[in-house]
Specification:
alpha/beta, 274 residues, globular, 10 helices, binds pantoate, 36% helix
Length: 274
Amino acid sequence: MHIHSAIADLRSALKNRGRIVFVPTMGNLHAGHISLMEQARAHGDTVVASIFVNRLQFGPNEDFDKYPRTFADDCAKLAAAGVDVLFAPTEADLYPEPQEYVVEPPAIQNVLDGEFRPGHFRGVATVVTKLFNIVRPDAALFGKKDYQQLMVIRNMTRQLAMPIAIVGGETVRAADGLALSSRNGYLSETERAEAPRLYRLLNEIRDAIRQGEADTLKLEEKAIAELNAAGWKTDYVAIRQQADLAMPKGVNAPLVVLAASRLGTTRLIDNIEI
Ligand code: PAF
C-alpha cells in the first residue's frame, strides 16, 4: 500500500490507475470500515482510502481533540484489506489556508443530527467535496450507520453533477447488536453493557410498525422514555421517510428509524430501515 500526504503526490500516484474507488474515513478503523474497503474492490480497479480527522465537522464542544488517532494500526488494517493507496493529509496539506469557501447543504442539514450538531453537515460536505476533487474517484463508499450523512453526500453529488457513484455499506454490528463506531471506545464497561439497548429499541419500533402500529409519535416517545429511564440523555428517536428524512405521511412508505443518545459523555447514533 502506498501512502501519500501531499495532494500533488497523490494526484500523480493515481494517474492511469483505471477506475478509482474511494473510501474516506477519519481513522480509528473498525470492522465496519474494513467491510467498506473490501466491498470497494468490486467497484473499480484501484482502492483509495483516506484518513483525516476533519476539524470543520466538529462543534466547539465536541471531541475533535480526543478523537482517537491510531495511524499505525489503521495502516496495517488497510494493507491487510487490500487497499492500494492511502491518502493521509495533515491539516496543513488539506487546509493550508482557512477554508472560507464551503459547501452549504440545504435544510436537511438542520434536522435530526444537524439540529444537535450545527454546522456538522457543512463540514462534512465541504471536506468530502475537497477529497473528491483531490482523489477524483469514479465511486465512493460510505457506511449507512451515518444515514443522514450518506443522504447529504448522495444528494450533493447528484445536484452538483459530480460523476461519482455513491455506494452505501450496511452497518456492521457487535454480536450484541451495538453498531461499530470509533466512539464506542469511549464507553466504560458498564456503559458498553448498556449500549445495545439503543439497537434493541430500534428493532422494537420496527416490529411494532410491521405489526400495524401507525402512531409513530407514540413509538418515538416510548423509546425516548425508556432510554432516559435507563440513564441515557436522548437527542432524538425519529421515524422518518427513507426518501428524504421527512416526517412520514403514513407507515406504508419505506421508513427509517434514527436515534442519537448519550451514555455518559459518549454520543451514540444508530438507525434501522423498515
Ligand atoms: O464518516 C466519516 O468518517 C466522516 O464524516 C467523513 C465522511 C470521512 C468526512 O470527514
